[in-house]
Amino acid sequence: MFHGTITKELTSHEEWRHYNDNMIEDQKDFVFVKFSGLHLKSMENLQSCISLRVCIFSNNFITDIHPLQSCIRLVKLDLHGNQIKSLPDTKFWSGLKKLKLLYLHDNGFAKLKNICMLSACPSLIALTMFDCPVSLKKGYRHVLVNSIWPLKALDHHVISDEEIIQNWHLPERFRAYNHRLFFNFCPALKKKKMNYGKV
Fold it and tell me: Which residues cross the membrane (predicted)?
C-alpha cells in the first residue's frame, strides 16, 4: 500500500513526467543495446528505440519479441538463450528489411513451419537455431535453406550448393558440413584479463 502511494505521487509529479518523456525521447536515438543475462522477461521498453541497429538480449527469460516491430533499422538481433517458443508472422519479419544476423539458438522452437516465417526477412544472411528442439527434426536444415532464400550461413556452416539442389553430389570439399565451410559468426565474447602487475 505504501509503495503504491509513493509510485502514484512520483508518476503524477511534473518533474517525473518530464524525466520520463526525456528518457523516451533519448531512446529514439539508441543504435546499440545490450541486456544480456539480466533475467529480463519483457522487451516492452524497446518499442521506442526506432533507430536501433544492434540488439543483444541474450540469456534472459524473453518469450515475446513483438515489441521489436518498431525497430525497423535492426541489422543484428541476438536473442539466444531465452524462452521463445514461436516467432511472429511474416508481416513482422518483412518489416525488418535490414536484418542480416539473427541468433535464435538455445530457445524452445519446436515447429519447423513457424521457423519458416523467417522467409519474409529479405536481407537475412546468417541464422543460428542449434540447441533448439526444431534443429533435431529430419530435414530441418534443408527446409530452412530452401525457405529463406538470402540465407548464406546456418548454425556455424556456410550453406553449400549441395543443400540447395536436391540429389546433387559434389566433391568432398564442397559438401554440406565440410570443415572448410565452418564459420563461427557468433563467437563467445572473451573477458579481458586485467593485468595487475607489481609496482
Answer: none
